[in-house]
């Protein structure tokens, strides 16, 4: 068997494969973001409608908001896995508190205490 000559070139560098653009994954991600935005807009509109209903009713606004929150949380408990509901409940509460604090810092800085011991101060019980 005759020897075959190998092609000897000066450039023995194997080029890296260019990253393949997964168009399908990008489209799914874009669709998901669009759907989240659309759903968020619809839910905000529904919340505005609920507040209008509460305002026109002859009952305290506090009780109306309590009832709305109660029913939304109850729907979440019965339609989600316990760990999913727990995570959604905790993260939404934390986000609401963070947004409220940012709002107060910008609009009413005199009401926001920048004390580093906030957690300790909130745990103290006044007698």
Oligomeric state, counting identical vs distinct chains: single chain
The helix count comes to 4
What Rg do the Cα atoms give? 28 Å
Amount of beta strand: under 5%
Could you give the order of the helices and strands? HHHH
Shape: elongated
Helix content: 55-70%
Structural class: mainly alpha
For the largest beta-sheet, the strand count, sense and barrel status come to: none
The average pLDDT score comes to: 85
Describe this protein's structure.
With 127 residues, this protein is mainly alpha-helical. It is 67% helix and 0% strand. It has helices at 23-56, 61-79, 82-107, 118-123. Helix 1 (23-56) runs antiparallel to helix 2. The chain is elongated and about 100 Å long. The mean pLDDT is 85.
């Amino acid at each position: 068997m005759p020897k075959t000559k190998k092609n000897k070139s000066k450039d023995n560098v194997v080029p890296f494969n260019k990253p393949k653009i997964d168009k399908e994954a990008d489209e799914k991600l874009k669709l998901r973001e669009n759907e989240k935005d659309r759903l968020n807009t619809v839910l905000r509109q529904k919340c505005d409608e609920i507040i209008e209903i509460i305002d026109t009713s002859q009952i305290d606004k506090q009780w109306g908001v309590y009832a709305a929150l109660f029913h939304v949380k109850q729907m979440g408990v019965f339609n989600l896995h316990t760990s999913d509901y727990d995570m959604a409940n905790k993260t939404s509460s934390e986000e609401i508190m963070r947004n409220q604090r940012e709002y107060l810092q910008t609009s009413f800085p005199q009401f926001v205490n920048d004390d580093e011991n906030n957690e300790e101060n909130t745990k103290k019980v006044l007698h």
